[in-house]
Amino acid sequence: MKAIRGLAMVHVPTSPAATTVFAGRTLLARSLALAGSVGLRAVLVAHDAAALPDLPPEVIRLAPGERLPPSLPPNSTVLAWRCDEAFVAGLLRELLADQAPRERVLLDDIGRVAIVRTDFARLAGGVPEDPGSLAAALPGHAVDARHRCIAIATDAAEGRPPRVAESALVATLVNPRDGLFDRLLNRPISQAITPRLLRLPVTPNQVTLLSLAVGGLAAAALARPGFAWPVAGALLMQATAVLDCMDGEIARAKVLESAWGERLDVTSDSLIHVLAFLGIAVHEWPRLGARLAWTLGAMFAIGGLLAFAVVTRAERTEDRWKPIGSPAARLLGGMLATLTTRDLSMLVLAAALLGLLRPLLVGAAFGAQGFWVLALLLHGHLMREVGRREAVSAAAGFATQVGDQSRSVSRQAFSIAASSFEGQSRTPTAGSRKRARAARFSSP
């Protein structure tokens, strides 16, 4: 079970808005899925909250102006949004990870307040009317007008019709690691197809498995002799690149992202590349000889699998080594970006058309070995640097803590000594008592 990271205050304008279907589920169900995917406790805000459909027992229903339950965590982050806004979970994760103290307000594509990030204390125990009124009560907030939220037209609000809004949302789902041919070819094709699948019972994992099956067919075609078969295999491999874009778009649009799906996607991509180059090795068998062809194919397969393992490990620790900002960190980051692009499929297609599959096989076999070795060395160097910096930081923190404790002990010792000295100065000595008695007897 995910830890609760804050509160999701989902505002439902009217009941029809809650039941409007978007990307295969109602807007209300989609908002609850978004909140759950990032670890937020859902609070539904609606004038007719009692008329909302059956909800899980942990979901709180309130009306605008009501008081928040005192049992809610008082120091949590609050993300408030309208349920008739289309966005992805990654946007919520970005807002939760933002350490800036200022509140943030995100506008949608028609200029309406879509999402507000604030603190629980700012709510003063009450439920705001909507995100717009909450934003108006937050002076000095930062405004994000990059239109990453899409307004959905319902009976209560203006915006794009749901099907148009689905296409608009998919158009925002770009990957910063997309390569040149991803941006020019693969992504435009996938963004034209994906919206047509959002209302069908299609899951991203099904698309990933379809991509793997097409990759197997591509490898079989690449292995055949002649000119037409390898070209057909390269085109099928290019189709797997489009499918690879689509599974991620469907996962984000339908709020079906998962760690298992991500592992399946990365593993499928690696297997497709390995199968493709094994197919090329079989194709070049008559010209290279069985021994050399299989050696080159095995070199790429082993190198590709080792590169997959090294890259997976580097990506899991990327948040630790990337902030170093050294040339080694930038080089490793560039290598990860290069490996995760889909431009290799276009390279295979170009080689098949030009009759250059043999040079491609030789270059890929040695390149794969060099890639994983260099990536392993860079990652090891960076993690040692991370360990050194963390040790220095921990030592500095320990020294500061010891220094604070030493100063505290010194102050306590000085206070005890001062108190003891003061008590001794007030206590009469034997000589002082004799002088006092003599003074009394000598007085008239």
Write structural notes for this entry.
This protein is α/β, with parallel strands linked by helices and 444 residues long. It folds into two domains: 6-171, Spore Coat Polysaccharide Biosynthesis Protein SpsA, Chain A (Alpha-Beta Complex), CATH 3.90.550.10; 180-379, Up-down Bundle (Four Helix Bundle (Hemerythrin (Met), subunit A)), CATH 1.20.120. It has 16 helices and ten strands. It has helices spanning 15-19, 27-37, 89-97, 131-136, 162-171, 180-197, 204-223, 228-253, 259-283, 285-288, 290-316, 318-321, 327-340, 343-354, 357-426, 430-442, and strands spanning 6-11, 21-22, 25-26, 40-45, 60-62, 77-82, 85-86, 104-108, 113-119, 142-151. Strands 5-4-1-6-9-8-10-7 form an eight-stranded mixed sheet. A two-stranded antiparallel sheet has the order 2-3. β2 (21-22) and β3 (25-26) form a beta hairpin. α5 (162-171) packs antiparallel against α6 and α13 (327-340) packs across α15 (357-426). It is flat, with a radius of gyration of 33 Å. The N and C termini lie far apart (92 Å). Residues 439-444 have low confidence and may be disordered.
Mean pLDDT: 86
> What is the topology, as strand order, of the major beta sheet?
5-4-1-6-9-8-10-7
Task: State the domain count.
Answer: 2
- Stated plainly, the CATH topology of the largest domain is called Four Helix Bundle (Hemerythrin (Met), subunit A)
Q: What overall form do the CA principal axes indicate?
A: flat
Beta content: 5-15%
The chain-level structural class is alpha/beta
Strand segment tally: 10
The DSSP helix count reads 16
CATH class label of the largest domain: Mainly Alpha
Multimeric state: single chain
Specify the biggest β-sheet. Answer: 8 strands, mixed
Poorly predicted regions: 439-444
Distance between the termini: 92 Å
In sequence order, what are the helices and strands, one letter per element? EHEEHEEEEHEEHEHHHHHHHHHHHH
Rg value: 33 Å
